[in-house]
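Students often ask why we bother encoding 3D structure as a string. The short answer is that it lets us treat folding as translation between two languages. Here is a chain of 136 residues written in the first language.
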Amino acid sequence: MAARDTPSIEPGDCTGPAPVPISAAADRVGSTARMLRYREGLGLLPRTQDPPTGRGHRHRRFTEEDLRTIRRGLELEREFDIPPAALSFALRVLAEPEVLARVRAHGERLGRLTPAPARAMDFEKEKAMRLLRPTL
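And here it is in the second language, the structure alphabet:
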């Protein structure tokens, strides 16, 4: 897919298109406002730095860069035929080493993943520990 020629918007840049509300953003990415809110709850939308407006409510506005990021996520979901929750969990696995280790261990138990090879340092450490143990 070719990159779009739309310029990115920097904070304080008044020359680019104005950020759009969620209903317009949903139309532009081919989704619904409800699905965008669902994806936001799963952590699949870019974080906003917008200050609250009105009576303390934050009305989310989407920049062109936000829309490109949302489209990329939707493309991943379609390409791999996965629901938004699966993409969200994949991101969690990549971001949290403990979760990654537990998922990897489960994959190894299932036989879908081969155990990671032992590193040379691990072998040397085990060898040193054996040599330090008192013999009876």
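Translate back mentally: The helical segments are 22-29, 33-41, 64-80, 84-95, 97-110, 120-132. Keep this in mind for the problem set.
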